[in-house]
Amino acid sequence: MSRYQQLRTELAASPKTWLVTGAAGFIGSALVETLLGLDQRVVGLDNFSTGHQHNVDEVLELVGSERAARFRMETGDVTDLDACRRACTDVDLVLHQAAIGSVTWSIDDPLRSHASNVDGFLNMMIAARDAGTNRLVYASSSAVYGDEPTVPAREDVFGRQLSPYAVTKRINELYAGVVQDCYGFESIGLRYFNVFGRRQDPNGPYAAVIPKWIDTLVRGNTAVIFGDGSATRDFLYVDNAVQANLLAATTPDAAATNQIYNVGCAEATTIGDLYVMIRDALAADRPELRDKPPEHTPPRPGDIEHTSSNIDKLRDALGYEPTHLVAEGLKKTAAWFTKR
Q1: Can 320 be counted among the known catalytic residues?
Q2: Where are the domains of the chain?
Q3: Using the 8-state DSSP alphabet, how is residue 274 labeled?
Q4: Residue 18: left if φ>0, alpha if ψ -120 to 50, beta else—which one?
């Protein structure tokens, strides 16, 4: 039995109260779905600026009325300290996902990104500390590696950040370390690579590539690749991110806290290959897509050419092991989107 399977059994036998910030987003709602499925008590916090009520509604329908009764939704913004304090009341563990999670958006509006990602993060850290919660796990990003050429990326080697978004995530890591050193409040940072999966929003100018391409192709339009398609990414199916959060939140090893961990699959996929995998997954039901080519445009500013994760630290310290590699995750994601 894997450490994660063992943990799921332990949690179901001994429920805790969890706060998930950004609960209406696709990662947050996946966390809520998993926790409620394990008979946990869950509080959600979201301002619905990028998350959606229909994500929450779908989760509550999936888990059933008995488990849904263990969920409480708080509408509020992490930039409001009082909202953070209310959400932390009687909470054991905090999973902090709320952020403006877009490189391009941060370049267009750095002030808003800083307010949400830095001020909001510190508000949540202080609110969680003052409420007596046991630990906070927060979403960092592989964007902090910036122009560091080492591939796969190791947690202790990174370069110059290339976007305001990347800077905000590095600041979060620094603040978390200082808060634990100064106040003894435990936290763990998770450097997500390219997370994708069900309920990821395909709409808007800052939509992530996988849901945007799926939506574009299903509508009969042409998908756009920025660059020649040779750039690589470590694509992470959302259930792997959920696993990392639960392992980090519950590890009994104090030495594993005040640490940053890569969360990926240690699997580099070119953007061109990703397009073909998505197109082929959709073509099972839509054969007209089988030979549809993409359109290529110049690369976007702030994008990193190659990313891939070294996940040895996460494996060794927390027992993480990816349950879904990119191909399987894409099939599940494409199936979810095409049904809707």
Answers
A1: no
A2: 3-338
A3: H
A4: beta
Q: Measuring CA to CA, which residue among 271, 303, 266 is closest to residue 145?
A: 303
In terms of Cα–Cα distance, which of 164, 54, 53, 51 is closest to 115? 164
| pLDDT tens-digit map of 106-127 | 999 999 999 999 999 999 999 9
- The answer regarding whether domain 3-338 maps to CATH 3.40.50.720 reads yes
Token duo for residue 1: 């039995």
C-alpha to C-alpha distance for 306 and 312, rounded to whole angstroms: 19
Q: At what angle do helices 326-338 and 209-218 cross, to 10 degrees?
A: 50
Our CA dihedral for 34, 39, 41, 43, rounded to 10 degrees, sits at 30
Helix/strand/coil for 231: coil
Task: Report how far residue 120's alpha carbon sits from residue 337's, in angstroms, rounded to the nearest whole number.
Answer: 31
pTM over 0.90: yes
Of 4, 165, 237, 320, which residue is the catalytic one? 165
Helix (H/G/I), strand (E/B), else coil: 71: strand
304 Cβ contact list (under 8 Å, min separation 6): 142, 143, 145, 146, 147, 162
Q: How far apart are alpha carbons 174 and 255 in whole angstroms?
A: 17
| Per-residue pLDDT, 76 | 97
Whether pLDDT at 320 is above 90:
yes
In whole angstroms, how far apart are CA 229 and each of 121, 273, 275, 297?
34, 8, 9, 10
- Confirm if 172 and 144 have CB atoms less than 8 A apart: no
How far apart (Å, rounded) are the C-alpha atoms in residues 243 and 319?
10
As a whole number, the mean pLDDT across the chain is: 93
Peptide bond preceding 110 in cis form (omega within 30 of 0):
no
Residue partners of 244: CB distance under 8 A and separation at least 6: 190, 261, 263, 314, 318, 320
Q: What is the DSSP track for 121-144?
A: HHHHHHHHHHHT-SEEEEEEEGGG
pLDDT, tens only, 241-256: 999 999 999 999 999 9
Contact of 183 with 132, CB cutoff 8 Å: no
